[in-house]
C-alpha cells in the first residue's frame, strides 16, 4: 500500500488547484475562448488540461494549511491576475468594434445593428465585420499560443504562493479604456474624415440650392461612398492590427512587472 501523508495530499492539491484558479479565470475573461460561442464545460476542460500540463514545470508553491484566511487571499489573487490578463486582451478586440461603430455612424449605418453571438450585445454590422477579421488575424498570427505563453510566464513573475494584491497594476487596466477609444479613433480616422468631407459637400449644395432634396440624394450616396471607402481602407487593416496588438502585448507586459519597493 502507498504510504501517503496528509501533508503530501495538501501539497498535491495546492500545486494543482491554485494554478487552476488563475488559468480558469484567464480562459473565462479572454477573447474567443471566453465568449458564449464556447460552452462553459469546454472552457473548464481546457483549464484542467492546461493546468495539468503546466503544473510539472511551474515553481512548487508552499503547502497551504487548510482553508485559512491566507488561502482565500491567494485564491482571490489568482482570480484577479487571470481576469486582468484576459480582460486586457479583450480590450484589444473592442478597439475594432468601437472603430466600426464610429465609421458606421458617419456613413449612416448606425441603425444596422445585430446581436453579437459571442457577447450577446447589440453591435453594428460593420463593427461585427471588423471583429470577425480581427479574430481570424489573431488566430492566423498564433495569438492563442501567445496567450498561453503569457499565462505561463505570469506564474514565474507572480508565483501563486506569494500574497501581494498590489502586484496587479489596476491603474493600467483602467487606463486601457482610454487607450481603447483613442485606438478606435485612430483606426477609423481616415474613413471618418473622408465621410465628413462628403457631408460638408452636401451641406454646401443644400445652401446653394435649397430646392434640392438632399435627404433623398445624400443618404444613399453617403452610404455607397462609405462602403467604397471602407473597402479601400482594408488594405491597411493588417498594419493597424499589428500596431494595436503590439501595444496590447506591451500593456500586458507592464501588468506582469512586479513593483519594487
From TrEMBL:
<keyword id="KW-0966">Cell projection</keyword>
<feature type="transmembrane region" description="Helical">
    <location>
        <begin position="120"/>
        <end position="140"/>
    </location>
</feature>
<dbReference type="Pfam" id="PF01311">
    <property type="entry name" value="Bac_export_1"/>
</dbReference>
<dbReference type="InterPro" id="IPR002010">
    <property type="entry name" value="T3SS_IM_R"/>
</dbReference>
<protein>
    <recommendedName>
        <fullName>Flagellar biosynthetic protein FliR</fullName>
    </recommendedName>
</protein>
<keyword id="KW-0812">Transmembrane</keyword>
<keyword id="KW-1003">Cell membrane</keyword>
<keyword id="KW-0282">Flagellum</keyword>
<feature type="transmembrane region" description="Helical">
    <location>
        <begin position="79"/>
        <end position="99"/>
    </location>
</feature>
<dbReference type="GO" id="GO:0006605">
    <property type="term" value="P:protein targeting"/>
</dbReference>
<keyword id="KW-1133">Transmembrane helix</keyword>
<dbReference type="GO" id="GO:0005886">
    <property type="term" value="C:plasma membrane"/>
</dbReference>
<feature type="transmembrane region" description="Helical">
    <location>
        <begin position="179"/>
        <end position="202"/>
    </location>
</feature>
<dbReference type="InterPro" id="IPR006303">
    <property type="entry name" value="FliR"/>
</dbReference>
<keyword id="KW-0472">Membrane</keyword>
<feature type="transmembrane region" description="Helical">
    <location>
        <begin position="214"/>
        <end position="234"/>
    </location>
</feature>
<comment type="similarity">
    <text>Belongs to the FliR/MopE/SpaR family.</text>
</comment>
<keyword id="KW-0969">Cilium</keyword>
<feature type="transmembrane region" description="Helical">
    <location>
        <begin position="12"/>
        <end position="33"/>
    </location>
</feature>
<feature type="transmembrane region" description="Helical">
    <location>
        <begin position="40"/>
        <end position="59"/>
    </location>
</feature>
<feature type="transmembrane region" description="Helical">
    <location>
        <begin position="146"/>
        <end position="167"/>
    </location>
</feature>
<keyword id="KW-0975">Bacterial flagellum</keyword>
<dbReference type="GO" id="GO:0009425">
    <property type="term" value="C:bacterial-type flagellum basal body"/>
</dbReference>
<dbReference type="GO" id="GO:0044780">
    <property type="term" value="P:bacterial-type flagellum assembly"/>
</dbReference>
<comment type="function">
    <text>Role in flagellar biosynthesis.</text>
</comment>
